[in-house]
Amino acid sequence: MVKKETDINISIDFETYSEADIYKKGAFAYADDPTTEVLMVAWVIDEGEPKLWTQGQPPPTELFELVSKGAKLWAWNVQFEIAVWHRTLQWPKTKVVQWNDTAALAAAQAYPRALAKCGEALGLSEDQKKSKRGKLLIQRLCKPYRGKKLEDEQLLSELGDYCKQDVIAEREIRKRLRNLRGMEQEIFFCDLKINWRGVMLDKQSIKSALAIIEKHTKQCNEKIKTLTNNFLDTSTSRAKACEWAATQNYDLKGYDKLTVAQAIDDPTCPKKVKQFLKIRQSLSKTSTKKFDAMLACIAKDGRAHGLLSYHGAATGRWVGRHFQPQNLPRPSVDNVEEIIKELQKENPLNLPGDPMEALASCLRGMLTASKGNRLMVADFASIEARVLAWLANAEQTLQIFKDEKDIYKATASSMFNVKYDEVTKQQRFIGKVATLALGYQGGVRAFQKMSIAYGVEVDEAQALKVRNDWRDVNKDIVRLWANVERAARNAISYKDEYEVCKGVFKMVNGDLLFKLPSDRLLSFPAAELVPSKFGIDIVYKGVNNHTHKFGEIKAYGGFLVQSITQAVARDILAEAVLRLEKAKYPIVLHVHDEIIADVPKAHGTMYEFGKIMCENPIWAEGLPIEADGYEAFRYAK
After folding, report:
1. Which helix (H) or strand (E) is 380 found in, with range?
2. What is the dihedral of CA 455, 456, 457, 458, to 10 degrees?
3. In sequence order, what DSSP letters do the residues of 126-153 get, joined into one string?
4. Average pLDDT, stretch 311-333?
5. How sure is the predictor about 2, in pLDDT bands with cuts at 50, 70 and 90?
6. Rounded CA separation 4/70 (Å)
7. The whole model's pTM is what?
8. What is the pLDDT of residues 244-267, one digit of tens each?
9. Longest C-alpha distance within the chain, in Å?
10. How far apart are alpha carbons 155 and 579 in whole angstroms?
11. Whole-Å CA distances, 449 to 220, 434, 463
C-alpha cells in the first residue's frame, strides 16, 4: 500500500557555519546573522537510507516536493531547523503543523533533551547512536577556527557522515518514544507558533542601558582607585578585596552577596570598607547582564524568538531560554516608564538611587507591544495552592478561594486559632511561608529555608511548631501524600492500575506513568522499589534538577504530589493559551502562571481576556480559577 505524503516522516538535520554564537543569539537571530551559511543538510525518509545536500549543489527538489504535499518533518530541537530552513536558506515555506520535535517527545517522557544522552538512556546500539567525533568536527568547521573559516575536504566529508548519523539516531530514538497525544499535540504546535512569533524588544533602550552600565562601571572603578589608594582598580577580585580590607583592620570573611550585606550592616566595619562594598554590590548585580543577553538575541525583525522550551521540566512546565524571561526581577521602583525615558540620555547620574538597581527595574519594560498594539498580561492567582487543595478534596481550603479570601491569612487564622480579620501581619507571613514551603511534605528545614529567602530567620523549635500546626489544619493534604505514595508503590509492585489524586498510576514497559486529569501522561522512567537503610524507596530515572544529569531519583509521597500538582497547573495554563489563541489574542510569551499577548488595539478587552483564561477545562470541574491582569505598552510586574 502506497503511503499518503502526509503520512511520510522525514528526519532532518542541518550543519551550519557562522561567526555568531548560537548559545547567545538563539536559533532565530543566529539564522539571521549575515555570516551564517548552511554547509549541508541530511535527511532520511521513513526507513530509507539518509541523503545529503551540500553547499553549492542544486536545491533538493525531491525533499521540497514531499514537504509541499504535507510530509512531516522531524528534528532534534526543531526550532533551529525551522529558523535555518526559512530565514537562512529561505527554502519553500512550510506549515507549523508539519514540524515535529523528537527532543520534545523525549522530554515529555522525562528523558534527556541532549541527543547523545537520550540515545544512551534508551540503550541504542553503536550504529544507531550520535557520533562522538561530532564535537571536534563542529569546533573545526562550524565556527571560526583560529580566527577564520576552515576549508578541509576530509573533515567536511566526515561532517557529512556525522550529519547523516544524526538523522539515523533521531529516527531510532523516535521509534522508541510515545507520540504526543490529543490536545498535547495541539499545545506543542501552539508553542512552535509562539516561539516563531517572538516578542518585541526595545532595542534602543537596551543599547542605552548598556551604555549607562559601561559609564557607571568606569566611574565606580575610578572611585575604587581613589578609595583604596590604587590598591584596587576593580571590585572583581575576591582575594585582593579581602587583602585590602585587612589593611583597613577588617576581616572580610567572604565575597558572596550575603556576606557583603552583613559586612555593610556590621557596626565595626570601617567607613571606607563599607563604601567599597556598596560599590561591589552595585557592580555585581547579575540581573543587569540580561541587557547583553537581550541585545544578542534580537533578530532582524526586532523581536526575540525561541524564548520558551516546551516541556523544559519533567512536569511539562516550560522553561526560559536566552535572557530567561522566567526570572526577570520585579521592579523595585514605581516610575519605571520615566526611568526608561531617561535612559536615552545615557547618563548614570540621571537615574534615581543606585543606577544598577534602577536599570534592573527596567528589564521587564524592555518587552513591548508591537506598533499599534498593546500587551495584555494576566496571571493565575495562587494556582498551585488551588490545584493542591482540589486534588486533595480539601473542601475547607477550596471554599476560602471561592469566597475570594486571602489564603495566607486564612491559613494563619486556622493555625493560630484567631478570627480571620484579627490575623496580624506577622501571623500572615507565617501562613504564607507555611503554605508555600509545606504543601509537598516539606519539614522544618524547608520552612526555615523559605523564611530566610524572605529575610526572616526562624529557629528550629518554632519551625517544628509551625510544621505541626500546618499539618493539623491541612489533614486532607497530609492524607494525599500517603495515598499517592501507596498507589505508586502498588502500581510498581503489582503492575495494575491504581486510582488516586484524580488520576491513575500504571506501569507500562518498565515506566511508572500517571494519567493526569487532563489525560496527559506524567512519566517516571524505569521505576522500581529499592531497599535502603530507611526501608524500601521508590527510585526512577530522570534528569536531576540540581545536577542536570540523567540518573536515579528517589520519590516519596510529597514529591509525587508536587509533580502532579505542578503538572495540573501547567495543563490549566496550556489550555488557556489555546483558548486565547483561538479568540485572536496572539500570545508572545508566558512566564510561570502568567500569559502575555501582543494584541491590536482594536481587538478584545481585558475583561474578555481574563474570562477566557479562567474558563474551567471539562476535566477540572470544581477547581476555582482566578486571574488578575493589566494592559500596557510595556511588560511591567
Report:
1. strand 373-380
2. -150
3. GGGSPPTTHHHHHHHHSS-BTTB----H
4. 91
5. low
6. 9
7. 0.92
8. 999 999 998 888 888 888 899 999
9. 87
10. 50
11. 34, 11, 10
